[in-house]
Amino acid sequence: MEIKQWIEKFPILKQVAEAQEIIWLNPSFSSVHSVHTAVINEDIAEEARERFERFKPWMKDVFSFEDPYRSPLTEIGDLQQKLQIRGRLFIKQDSELPVAGSIKARGGFHEVFAWAEELALQEGLLTGYADDYRKLNTPEAKALFSSYTIAVGSTGNLGMSIGIMGAALGFQSKVHMSKDAKAWKKDKLRSNGVQVLEYEDDYSRAVEEGRQQCQQEQTCHFVDDERSKLLFAGYTTAASELAEQLRNAEVYPSEEHPLFVYLPCGVGGGPGGVAFGLKRLFGEHVHCFFAEPTHSPAMLLGLITEKHEQICVQDIGLDNQTEADGLAVGRPSALASNVMKPLLSGACTIEDSRLYDYLVLLMDTEQIYLEPSALAGMAGPQKVAASNYMKTNGVNPETVTHIIWGTGGGLVPESVRKEEYTKGKSREESRDESN
Q1: pLDDT tier at 34 (50, 70, 90 boundaries)?
Q2: Is 417 exposed, middle or buried (CB count within 10 Å of its CB: 0-12, 13-18, 19+)?
Q3: Burial class of 365 by CB neighbour count within 10 A (0 to 12, 13 to 18, 19+)
Q4: Is the pLDDT of residue 115 over 90?
Q5: Are the CB atoms for 59 and 65 separated by under 8 Å?
Q6: Cys-Cys link to 15, which of 1, 20, 200, 290 (CB 3.0-4.6 A)?
Q7: Whole-number pLDDT of residue 166
Q8: With 90 as the cut, is the pLDDT of residue 293 above it?
Q9: What is the 3-state secondary structure (H, E, C) of the chain?
Q10: Tens digit of pLDDT for each residue in 50-94?
Q11: Is there a contact between 352 and 180 (Cβ–Cβ < 8 Å)?
């Protein structure tokens, strides 16, 4: 179908194809109960949580972290006042997750752990789930894992998660990286003993090349961000953690006090897993929105057209070029987009330049740093408030708890942080001069 035909069928695509900022409200929005268990087993969150618990002693032994899968939930009142957002405003700092410094730690670690566990049980290194997993930090375990390869295609953060954790266990780790990946991320991986393969193409090409190469090796496990249920399961565990943190903040999601969550979205596995977990816990009392760059709205396009992974942003004339490297995806995950079809309240897009505006604003008001791609959700509260979503759903804006999911940035070098802040500050100064 040509662009003109797509736009005639879905008029909002005109703005999307012109790389304009938009908000889209999902006409297929329903409830978690409509998710067919053949797509995702509703027990996956508990299974993943239990696997993380089993690996805690190993993580402490290797990385010295007491609670390696927990990130702060911080109320950001000064920023809320600046943006004039009603209700309460929090930021979930997955940027502070240890080792990988991003939301990808949840999914990536889980898949690496699942494969290591399977091999260790198969070879008798572990006698069962009740065994001491510190046995996996021994010469015998590393000798076993070193005969296997774990590989992934990535724009950056998933590669960091898989590569670093795979190498720590002793696997031969390979990360197939697209041209969007930042140089410092490649350097970080190589310094941790990870083989980085670079491509002068986008995310989809890196994934396809990695998948094909791994299929030719019997001892290679490919982490498929577009299809993996293990990745998805790892992300769902964030929901139970958040529920506990909300109770500590005296926030109890209900019809009168709903929870609105804004998640940056690339291929969709991370935000999809988090949203799935939240919908299972809070049902209709949580409203989830994805946020994507104007040049890479892969999930938005797949959901609007209901073509899911069968359509890419290039099909409507977009170039998939964005400084939000973690979101530089042209085609959504088939798994995540199909799961999210009835669960997602809506999605919005944001221009790259505004990511830097939010970077400066968050630093100046709250002294919190996030990398540009992790800031896409910052646009969510204002865009939703300006739409008719709350009125249609009978929501009082004063009683809403907003959570912006800060998906990454913990490992960004200080020199890069300063460069990004300076870039954003220059934009702010230019606006001030023009006014």
Answers
A1: low
A2: middle
A3: middle
A4: yes
A5: yes
A6: 20
A7: 97
A8: yes
A9: CCHHHHHHHCCCHHHHHCCCCCEEECCCCCCHHHCCCCCCCCCHHHHHHHHHHHHHHHHHHHHCCCCCCCCCEEECHHHHHHHCCCCEEEEEEHHHCCCCCECHHHHHHHHHHHHHHHHHHHCCCCCCCCCCHHHHCCHHHHHHHCCCEEEEEECCHHHHHHHHHHHHHCCEEEEEECCCCCHHHHHHHHHCCCEEEECCCCHHHHHHHHHHHHHCCCCEEEECCCCCHHHHHHHHCHHHHHHHHHHHCCCCCCCCCCEEEEEECCCCHHHHHHHHHHHHHHHHHEEEEEEEECCCCHHHHHHHHCCHHHCCHHHHCCCCCCCCHHHCCCCCCHHHHHHHCCCCCEEEEECHHHHHHHHHHHHHHHCCCCCHHHHHHHHHHHHHHHCCHHHHCCCCHHHCEEEEEECECCCCCHHHHHHHHHHHHHHHHHHHHHC
A10: 999 999 999 999 999 888 889 999 999 999 999 999 999 999 999
A11: no
Calculate the CA 109 to chain-centre distance. 13
User: Quick one: pLDDT band at residue 178, thresholds 50, 70, 90?
Assistant: confident
Predicted TM-score (pTM) of the model is 0.95
* pLDDT score of 203: 77
Alpha-carbon Rg for the chain, nearest whole angstrom, is 21
CA angle 46, 49, 50 (to 5 degrees): 90
Q: What is the pLDDT of residues 185-223, one digit of tens each?
A: 999 999 999 999 988 887 788 888 889 999 899 999 999
Contact between 239 and 281 under an 8 Å Cβ cutoff? The reply is: yes
